[in-house]
Amino acid sequence: MASSKANRKAFLAIAVAALAAHQSAWAALMGAPTTRPAMPKKAVHQECFNQALVAIVFSCNYLEAALYCHGRARLGRQYEDAAVYETKLQWLGIHEASLLAQAKQLRIVRRELMHEQAMEIANIEPSKVYVTQNEAEKAVALALEIKRLLRD
């Protein structure tokens, strides 16, 4: 259990750090003063997208690990790992409609990003970076809120 908690802590730390790196790159892209080395605009767009992806994926990793750990502890063998985030949260006593909606949105975003067939990371459009930025912020915020609610 201790290593599982350490893993969850690491997943969340990676997500938070990636979001911070993403936000820093995005601010530089938008012309904010920065200490970052100058990079071509296309490279900054790519870095923004990559860091947002890392934040989303590791937020999901945290959620999966936390929901599994707490679900098994509370429900034992009745815990069904194949269930979606929203169902797992309800099993753990989290019924707030806005959190369940955020969990559903994160599940959809993750599936779309991870299973997009023709994504060429080197040629990401700025609009995709912006959408991914918003989703990364939401993903990390949701993971932090679930951590708080589960007292993880």
SSE order and pairing:
Layout: H1 2-29, H2 41-75, H3 85-91, H4 97-114, H5 126-150
Helix pairs in contact: 1-2, 1-5, 2-3, 2-4, 2-5, 3-4, 4-5
Characterise the protein shown here:
This protein is mainly α. It has one domain (2-150). The chain is built from 5 helices and no strands. It has helices at residues 2-29, 41-75, 85-91, 97-114, 126-150. Helix 1 runs antiparallel to helix 2, helix 2 (41-75) crosses helix 4 (97-114) and helix 2 (41-75) runs parallel beside helix 5. The protein is elongated. The model has no long low-confidence stretch (mean pLDDT 85).
Quick structural gist:
The chain has 152 residues and is mainly α. The chain contains five helices and no strands. Helix content is 74%, strand content 0%.
Keywords for this structure?
single chain, 152 residues, mainly alpha, elongated
